Amino acid sequence: MRFLAYFAQDLLEFRMPEINSLCEMFGFKLQHGDLPNPLDPFLEIELPSEEIAVQLAKRCMLIKSIVDVWAEASNYEELFAKLRNADDALRTKTDVLKSPDRTFKFELHGYGTTTPFEERPDALYRPICEAIEPQGRIRLKNPDLTVMLLEDHGFHEIYPEQRIRRVWIGREVAQGPRRMLHEYDLKHRPYIGTTSMKAQLSFLCANMAHARPGTLVLDPFVGTASIILSCAAFGAKVVGSDLDWKTIKGRGPTRNIAANFREKKIPKPDIFILDQTHAPWRPVPFLDAIVCDPPYGIREGSRKTGSKSNDKVRAPRRYDAEDGPIFIPSRVQKGLVDTYNDLLDFAARTLVPNGRLVFWLPTCPQSYTPDEIPTHPCFRLLANSEQQLTTCWSRRLLTMVKIAPYTPKVVEGAPSADDPSFARIRRIVFAKAYRNGAAGTATTSSDTTPTPTGTETETASMEVEGESPTQEDTT
Questions:
Q1: How do residues 426-469 score in pLDDT, each as one tens digit?
Q2: Cβ of 381: how many Cβ atoms within 10 Å?
Q3: Highest mean pLDDT: which range of 30-34, 128-132, 168-172, 449-453
Q4: What is the average pLDDT across 392-412?
Q5: 308 falls in which pLDDT band (50, 70, 90)?
Q6: How many CA atoms does the CB half-sphere of 76 hold within 13 Å?
Q7: Is residue 175 exposed (0-12), middle (13-18) or buried (19+ Cβ within 10 Å)?
Q8: What would the 3-class secondary structure string for the chain be?
Q9: Cβ-count burial of 462 within 10 angstroms (0-12 exposed, 13-18 middle, 19+ buried)?
Q10: Structural contact between residues 359 and 291, judged by C-beta atoms closer than 8 angstroms
């Protein structure tokens, strides 16, 4: 069946990877028309049935609506002529408006136009009603069906004359889950941190990982559990771990990870305080997906348990707290190259066949090359989508699928990138602080660089994603 997908104008590089991933999860390969301009929000797709279209719309975060197309034309005169001279197939679709007991409404959406839609309803709706002759009643709130008019004027820099290139009319089959973005927004959560991922990006990670009922998903850098909260919202069983015990513990009984899940009426996840480098998980395939956002050393440092002298784990320090003694092992800096190599090796051991590894990778747009992407013989790269953060750095959502079982012989041939830009991302982001000769040093396995002062680091890191530090953050 032929449908039209109407996308939101956000995260353009993530559109096709997300919808392709969901189609694969539902068991079919997406057939679609040409997409000449990546900014174009309209995409003609072929789906097996209307039920599949509804399921796809409920999961795809970047889709506004999926429309059952009645007619398509290059201008309104041609569209009105097609409706007046409708064939049997078109009449069958428009007969849904012939029932007197059915309510409906018209919606007009456009891309690349600045003409107010309020100035054109009579010129558009009257010829449509004369051609279709609907018998139902118009209801603007909660109608039985919505008839959508979609105009494509093109990107104004490519088509400066702002004329209509394409126009569609059809029935809205389903709306996208955009309301979930407001429901799961960070501003509405009891507990968040400086690195809590936005709801839209978290749901994108869940869709790329095929999170659904019956799957087990792990986030080894869980933080405040934003990603696994989205996975759990889709019905997956989630598990998380992190080395930062303060983040896991939270700020009291009403401001912790469990409070975020309790507010959404989702079962509490299993969270463990551990070092992913020395993870106690059994090295057997038991995970369906691993989804994570490793620390880049910008807002949160990348660390592991060990000693600065010989990199061995020493006896933990003991602190007496109200709820019992707390044992904190010593920690040292860990380079990003080692972090991603350990992540790929761990995923190769613990993911089931065709399991998915979804993770974020910081990059420098000016010097990025595909060779920087971490690789492993057990995985094949499925998707690589960039989110531009500033002019000097961005991050990429990488999706990999396990294609081969883990064996020591396979690991011996695992390639590694030479001096990738993500290993120097801290120096790139805080270039101004380094030029000013900030005091302090930070030693990693891949780079030895001075560390900016605390105030400058904290402020710069919050401005990276267009945020401003609040009083709570600076304190």
A1: 677 666 555 555 434 433 333 333 344 333 333 333 333 334 33
A2: 15
A3: 168-172
A4: 87
A5: low
A6: 15
A7: middle
A8: CEEEEEECCCCHHHHHHHHHHHHHHHCCCCEECCCCCCCCCEEEEECCCHHHHHHHHHHCCCEEEEEEEEEEECCHHHHHHHHHCCCHHHHHHHHHHCCCCCEEEEEEEEECCCCCHHHCHHHHHHHHHHHHCCCCEECCCCCCEEEEEEEECCCCCCCCCCCCCEEEEEEEEEECCCHHHHHCCHHHCCCCCCCCCCHHHHHHHHHHCCCCCCCEEEECCCCCCHHHHHHHHCCCEEEEEECCHHHHHCCCCCCCHHHHHHHCCCCCCEEEECCHHHCCCCCCCCEEEEEECCCCCCCCCCEEECCCCCCCCCCCEEEEECCEEEEECCEEECCHHHHHHHHHHHHHHHEEEEEEEEEEEEECCCCCCHHHCCCCCCEEEEEEEEEECCCCCEEEEEEEEECCCCCHHHHHCCCCCCCCHHHHHHHHHCHHHHHCCCCCEEECCCCEEECCCHHHHHHHHHHCCCCCCCHHHHC
A9: middle
A10: yes
Instruction: Name 108's Cβ contacts closer than 8 Å, sequence gap at least 6.
Output: 117, 120, 121, 124, 148, 149, 151
C-alpha distances in Å from residue 52, one per residue of 44, 235, 248: 15, 18, 39
> How many CB atoms within 10 Å of residue 142?
7
Count of beta carbons in the 10 Å neighbourhood of residue 338? 17
Cα 346 from Cα 239, distance rounded (Å): 15
Joined together, the tokens standing for residue 439 give 């005091």
Token readout for 62 is 């970047």
C-beta atoms surrounding 103 within 10 Å? 15
Count of residues in the chain: 475
For residues 208-214, give the mean pLDDT: 97
Tokens matching residue 210: 């095929």
Query: Which strands form 31-32's sheet, in the order they lie side by side?
Result: 31-32, 42-46, 2-7, 63-73, 166-175, 145-152, 103-111, 137-138
How far apart (Å, rounded) are the C-alpha atoms in residues 189 and 263?
8
169 close to 158: Cβ distance less than 8 angstroms = no
pTM of the model: 0.83
Q: What is the maximum span of the chain, computed from C-alpha positions, in angstroms?
A: 84
For residue 410, give every residue at least 6 positions away whose Cβ sits within 8 Å of its Cβ, in sequence order, or none. Answer: 348, 377, 378, 404
Contacts of 302 (CB under 8 A, 6+ apart): 294, 295, 296, 333, 334, 335, 336, 339, 444
| Lookup result for tokens 């440092």 | 301
